[in-house]
Amino acid sequence: MSHWEKTVETLILSHKQISRIDNVTLEQFVNLRKLQLVDNGISKIEGLGRCKLLEELSLEKNKITSIEGVNHLRYLKKLDLGRNRIRRIDGLNQLESLTQLSMEDNEI
Hints:
Elements: E1 10-12, E2 34-36, E3 56-58, E4 78-80, E5 100-102
């Protein structure tokens, strides 16, 4: 059995009609640094429990309504949540490495 997932640092799954991050099965991608899930049907941030080294997360153009499921991502530097349905900016208190936050075209 191949373990190529453990060496992948960048994963781009944009425009794939993904409705849940769990469906992507990110459990094996333990060294993931950059994840792009742009233009899907994702409504909730979840399934990132094993992606502890993630530095960039792009969830632009989805159906996300609140910021949650990212507090454990202590190395996250860039978070793109533009073009979603978010009404409040909260849930980011523990992201001490965050240097870039994109929230354009939300319902704030």
